[in-house]
Design a protein that fits this description.
Strand 17 and strand 18 form a beta hairpin. The strands form five sheets. A six-stranded mixed sheet has the order 6-7-8-11-12-13. Helix 2 packs parallel to helix 9. The protein is α+β, with helices and mostly antiparallel strands. The chain is 33% helix and 19% strand.
Length: 598
């Protein structure tokens, strides 16, 4: 048994594990581990770290949340046969199994839809054209005939019946894809630069590191069942932002100049990752620079150590405080990083910021349109998807375009669209014509290019508004009345989970049930925020107006954007700079004085 325990904790742990063992035997489940001293069961195997963390929590007087108890009673990866039996009868899960099946990538989304949603794992957001075509077949055969591109450069399939759920999961495996660990208390899809390896601006190709971390997770069961979900992103400093600062761990490619040192030893100049920790925008925090740089080849080992410190010390008594941010807030970065170094068995490298060269500036429109690659004569083409939705017919044609006109890669982005890469100069017009034939385009308005929306009330039980539909209504209204030259990001999220990251939008909207009378009746609507940002403009948006009915939102957004156009300091002043230059009260006054379009 670990020497980290006090004698009292060791005695408690023996009793705790013995009781848990008895409960499993009573349910006909196998043992968790072998006999310990005196015959008492002690943790062993890949779940040991989690069992020890749970036991420490209880021994310290804490009460485990239900999800931790469900993990104890039956590990989700040990329950696949029972899941298939449940599915064969057409039955949907009770809450504890709804949680367990999320380990397999399935979410029962009733009452919004009486069906499952499946979220895939696509490292760095890149899959092959034939895989996209295969996913289209699965979505048509077992789902609702469409997919959504998510804000983690991923795909979701919806409207999956209970009977079809195992067929979908097994079909993904046959395509060389997986949904394993894409939900619940696990490390989510690994994001990386959308233009990795083809971008003339980038410092580093993130693909090998994102894939290495992806396979590291898939092949180590001890990295499942964390205190809460966990996000990791690799940004190579290319044209398209990865939003790595919204992740628990953000690896940011940087160039270290000559003369840097750590603990009196010289640091080799060149390309490194800078380590940022603790991003969780739904809880008002972006990842913060640790002052540590990591050799790209060492990124997986460092991420592993960070996750294991979180496994041991994350809060298992309060889901609202269970993310990495709260360990960092309670401990401070120095103590946390010291624990990471202890886990690694070596000291991390720290470099003063003065030796780090400025990173290239993102191109906020690089995910849309035709852009020259680093490889002469080749281009990537950013396809505009209306709030991330794709029909299966469109997916098949996109796969064919990529295979016949490009390099065979489909690159999903965190901006809810995709790129077709490796298109020769002479093939660009063919690609554009084929996109137009299926109702898509590589061109869109500046406003639509930055429009982000979660699933919303149409498919999510938590959402208070129909975000995708309302996002399109905003675009339809504003595009008829405004011409924007400077990019603006508008993020609509349905609930406090902030899947669409409303806090980092130039304009952020979060779903709300808007009261309409004294009897307590409500209608769908939003609370609106202004002035959020990411990267060099990173910061949380501020509250601007609450309880706006959904039908009134497009006109309000128009007035806010028109106010910016009228009162900005110069034609190139960004919206975020304009919004932050004014107190919210003054912004409200300016917007109130701004009329609608004639």
């Amino acid at each position: 048994m670990s020497n980290d325990f006090t004698p009292d904790q060791k005695r408690y742990l023996e009793g705790f594990m013995s009781g848990m063992q008895s409960a499993r035997v009573a349910r006909g489940l196998g043992p968790l581990g072998g006999p310990g001293e005196g015959g008492a069961a002690t943790p062993s195997g890949p779940d040991r770290e989690h069992a020890e963390a749970q036991a420490r929590t209880v021994a310290g007087g804490g009460k485990l949340v239900d999800q931790e108890k469900w993990k104890q009673a039956e590990h989700p990866f040990d329950a696949y046969a029972r899941f298939k039996e449940q599915a064969s009868s057409g039955s949907y899960p009770r809450p504890e199994d709804n949680f367990r099946w999320r380990y397999h990538g399935l979410f029962y989304v009733a009452p919004a839809q009486n069906s499952y949603m499946c979220r895939l794992r696509i490292p760095n957001g890149i899959l092959k054209a034939w895989q996209l075509g295969g996913v289209a077949d699965l979505a048509e055969r077992h789902g609702g005939g469409y997919s959504h591109v998510t804000t983690r450069a991923n795909l979701q399939i919806r409207e999956i019946s209970a009977e079809n759920a195992p067929l979908l999961l097994e079909g993904l495996a046959e395509l060389g894809l997986t949904a394993k660990g894409s939900g619940a208390d696990n490390i989510r899809n690994v994001t990386g630069s959308a233009t990795a390896g083809i971008d003339p601006r980038e410092l580093l190709d993130t693909r090998p590191h994102a894939r290495a971390w992806h396979h590291h997770i898939l092949n180590d069961r001890s990295l499942y069942g964390l205190p809460r979900k966990f996000n990791v992103a690799f940004d190579g400093a290319g044209s398209v932002a990865t939003l790595e600062d919204t992740n628990d761990i953000g690896f940011q490619a940087i160039e270290v100049g000559e003369g840097a040192s750590c603990a009196g030893r010289p640091v080799e100049p060149g390309i490194w990752y800078r380590l940022a920790l603790g991003g969780i925008t739904g809880h008002h925090d972006l990842a913060r620079d640790t002052g540590i740089i990591v050799a790209p080849s060492d990124a997986v080992a460092v991420a592993d150590a960070i996750v294991r410190v979180f496994i041991a010390n994350g809060d298992r008594t309060n889901r609202a405080k269970a993310r990495l941010k709260y360990v960092l807030d309670a401990w401070g970065f120095d103590r946390f990083l010291a624990s990471v170094e202890e886990k690694l068995g070596r000291t991390l490298i720290r470099v003063e910021t003065g030796f780090v060269k400025p990173r290239p500036v993102y191109d906020r429109l690089a995910h849309i349109g035709v852009h020259a690659q680093a490889q002469p004569g080749l281009n990537w083409i950013g396809v505009a998807l209306p709030v991330g939705r794709l029909t299966t017919a469109q997916m098949r044609v996109l796969a064919a375009i990529s295979q016949q006109c490009g390099d065979g890669d489909i690159r999903l982005t965190v901006w809810q669209n995709l790129l077709i890469s490796g298109v020769p100069d002479g093939g660009v017009d063919d690609v554009l014509a084929n996109l137009q034939a299926i109702g898509l385009s590589a061109e869109t308005s500046v406003l639509r290019a930055g429009l982000i929306a979660c699933t919303g009330a149409t498919g999510c039980k938590f959402a208070a508004a129909h975000t995708k539909e309302d996002a399109l209504a905003i675009a339809d209204h504003c595009d008829q009345r405004l011409t924007l030259e400077t990019p603006v990001n508008i993020h609509l999220t349905g609930c406090h989970h902030s899947c669409a990251q409303h806090y980092i939008g130039d304009l952020g909207l979060i779903g709300a049930k808007v009261p309409i009378n004294e009897e307590g009746d409500t209608v769908p609507g939003y609370n609106l925020l202004v002035g959020g940002g990411y990267g060099v403009e990173g910061g949380m948006a501020r509250d601007f107006q609450t309880n706006v009915r959904a039908e009134d939102v497009p006109a309000l957004v128009e007035r806010i954007l028109r106010t910016w156009q009228t009162h900005r300091a110069s034609p190139d002043e960004s919206f975020v700079a304009f919004a932050r230059r004014h107190e919210v009260a003054m912004l409200r006054e300016l917007v109130a004085a701004t009329g609608d379009a004639a």
